[in-house]
Write a structure and sequence with these properties.
heterodimer, A: about 525 residues, mainly alpha, Leucine-rich Repeat Variant, B: about 140 residues
Chain lengths: ~525, ~140
């Protein structure tokens, strides 16, 4: 059931008697209270411009909840709002602008743009600021799907807004409102024909203004636009120049992040056209001053540019000394394309870095740089407590593979065989399976060489089954060599196999088997479990 | 040329009818203005009745767009079921407090504050207080 006061305002709301507006305006003169709030609601529910204007005049006096009531009914006050925008009363105009901004009334953009272009109007500056704010809000609406929809398709707003701004840009030489150019940049996108036309024509009235906006504005959308322009196929030379001269952190971080996006040929080409970055000369913007992720991106991006090697080297050196671990590692990787004593020195320093990833990055380059004295260093790094460093050392010494060792084995002296074999064992993690493969290879010579390598590397216990199998080989030399090699692992299974071999049809094999068995008797026999312990 | 018998007979009787309209005037007497007075009076009376009906209906037709402060006052009184005495009292209050129009009394609670009543309303404080409770 309605309260009496609610009934009164219900009658006033529904009445077709225009005198109700005067009554409501009288009620609206109250400072606050139920009558005031109800009169506000009722005025907003009626379609009367004068009453709406009275409400707009007092907007700045309303509290937040009352302002919300007004914003909820913004559709009813559009006409009064339009009049207020064009009003000479500064307070009324200011109130209207605040409402437009809060309610995001894009329908009033034409009026505001017209006012902004009116250079003699005292409200022109404010109007242009509101246009810019609305453009920012619309941009936010377009690229932030989480925001609630304002009731219509933002793309429609954008199209209408851009149409108005396009026409305004035609008149730029008269009004020279930079804010309108900014608003245009906030909404146009990197493929906009007018934008590309302006940027391609230094004589265009808007060229200087647009360039200034792109070069100095830190709004996310403008930064985004600049990066998108840079990535585009038809990136104007002006854009390359602006990108190389911008040195604000917001842009740089966004620019670095763009490197992680899908690479395009045009992006790589445009990067290679960059000859300098102003920020490299700004002391506060050393690479080490960026976040760890950005340091990595910056290094990759820097490497892809056409900046002089000296500048790149300076930047990388600074990062290598002062950057975050991932940044230092990236810098170290990037140094791979540089040669010379100075770079070698930096790499050697990086080997002793505190971060394993930096050590690993430096280790990978040691071998290719042919720095004197790196072999012992790499050998030491094979025993690093950090897995990634050991892996890097193995990569650096990858030529010391079992495959290469077997291939060159016959040409090596005994001493070299010993040292190289030892290194191969540490570098090639797959040497045992490969040795087993060699022990079962087709050629007699290969099998004999494999048995010799097994003895040399002292890995008989690991291939004992293969050697026992070789006791039944077709070739008596192989059988004899296997019997001889088995003396190094005196276990019952081997002894049993050798006792069988002692009755081989070949005398050489019999002798070798007996010789090994004789060794057994002189040794204390290890248990089978000993093998498992070794393994 | 021969004249047939029936025609001769008719001509023969013509003299009988010849004097029949001698006592009637050939032109009508002139119409005097006073002749219309009863009619005009009747029409005016009818028009007045119709106008009165229309005016009455208009006065009470709250759905018609208009700009009439008295009508709005009546509309509000009707919504609140106020009797004639209350309506009169409200009207007097509006006048006493110099409100822009009588209907403003429905949105002006201070009018019903009994401690601020002027002398002329001191005797009606109870009714005013009761009215205030009914309206707010």
């Amino acid at each position: 059931m309605n309260t009496p006061i609610a009934l009164t305002f219900e009658v006033l709301a529904k009445s077709r008697n225009d005198s109700a507006n005067d009554v409501l305006l009288a009620a609206f003169t109250h400072e606050s209270g139920q009558v005031f709030v109800e009169s506000l609601k009722t005025i907003l529910s009626r379609r009367n411009k004068e009453a709406h204007r009275a409400v707009l005049e007092r907007w700045h006096e309303l509290d937040e909840s009352e302002k919300e009531i007004l914003l909820q009914s913004r559709g009813h006050i559009a006409a009064a709002l339009r009049d207020a925008v064009l009003a000479e009363d500064t307070q009324l105009f200011t109130n209207a602008c605040q409402i437009i901004e809060r309610a995001e009334e894009y329908d009033l953009v034409p009026n505001l743009v017209t006012l902004a272009e009116h250079t003699t109007s005292p409200h022109a500056n404010h109007a242009s600021t509101v246009v810019l704010t609305l453009a920012g809000r619309l941009n936010n609406l377009l690229y932030n799907p989480a925001r609630p929809n304002v009731g219509s398709d933002p793309q429609v707003f954008r199209k209408n807004f851009l149409d108005i701004l396009n026409r305004s840009l035609d008149r730029f030489r008269y009004h020279k409102r930079i804010e309108l150019l900014e608003a245009f940049c906030l909404l146009c996108g990197a493929t906009d024909d007018l934008l590309l036309t302006i940027l391609d024509d230094p004589h265009h009235p808007c060229f200087k203004g647009i360039s200034q906006v792109l070069a100095t504005n830190t709004h996310s959308a403008i930064v985004h636009l600049l990066v998108d322009l840079f990535r585009s196929e038809k990136a104007p030379a002006t854009v390359l120049s602006i990108v190389s001269h911008r040195s604000d952190r917001k842009f740089l971080c966004r620019f670095f992040a763009s490197y992680d996006q899908k690479k395009s040929a045009s992006f790589s080409r445009n990067l290679s056209r960059i000859r300098t970055f102003s920020w490299l000369n700004v002391p506060t913007y050393h690479l080490s001053s960026f976040d760890e992720e950005d340091q990595v991106r910056a290094v990759k991006l820097l490497s892809a540019t056409g900046i002089s090697p000296n500048h790149k080297l300076d930047a990388l050196e600074e990062l290598l000394l002062k950057g975050e671990p991932a940044g230092r590692a990236a810098a170290c990787d990037a140094l791979a394309e540089f040669s010379g004593d100075h770079t070698n020195h930096m790499i050697l320093q990086a080997v002793y870095d505190t971060a394993p990833q930096v050590q690993a990055a430096a280790t990978r380059q040691l071998r290719n740089r042919h720095i004197p004295g790196t072999m012992p260093l790499l050998s030491d790094l094979l025993d690093s407590p950090h897995e990634e460093v050991r892996t890097a050392a193995r990569e650096a010494l990858s030529e010391f593979s079992f495959e290469n060792f077997v291939r060159d084995y016959d040409g090596l002296s005994d001493e070299v065989r010993q040292t190289t074999g030892s290194l191969v064992q540490r570098v090639d993690e797959e040497y045992l399976p490969r040795l087993k493969t060699e022990l079962s290879a087709q050629g007699v010579k290969r099998r004999l060489r494999a048995i010799e390598i097994a003895k040399l590397l002292e890995v008989v216990p690991y291939v004992v089954d293969d050697l026992i199998t070789l006791l039944g080989d077709n070739d008596h030399v192989v059988r004899a060599t296997a019997a001889e090699a088995l003396q190094y692992w005196p276990v019952p299974e081997v002894q049993a196999a050798l006792e069988v071999a002692a009755h081989d049809r070949s005398g050489t094999v019999q002798n070798a088997a007996r010789s090994s068995l004789a060794v057994f008797t002189n040794l204390q026999q290890p248990t089978s479990s000993g093998l498992s312990e070794v393994l | 040329m021969t004249i047939k018998l029936p025609v001769v007979c008719l001509l023969a009787q013509f003299s009988k009818w010849e004097r029949l309209g001698d006592n009637f005037r050939r032109t009508r007497p002139p119409i005097e203005l006073t002749d219309f007075v009863p009619y005009i009076f009747g029409v005016l009376l009818l028009g007045g009745i119709v106008a009165a009906i229309i005016a009455y209906r208009r006065r009470n037709d709250l759905s018609r767009p208009c700009s009439d402060s008295q009508k709005l006052f009546r509309e509000l009184c009707l919504a609140h079921n106020l009797d004639r005495a209350s309506q009169k009292l409200l009207s007097r209050l509006a006048e006493a407090y110099r409100l822009g129009q009588p209907a403003e009394v429905f949105v002006t609670p201070r009018v019903f504050a009994t401690d601020q009543l002027s002398k002329q309303f001191q005797g009606e404080a109870t009714q005013i207080s009761e009215l205030g409770r009914r309206l707010f």
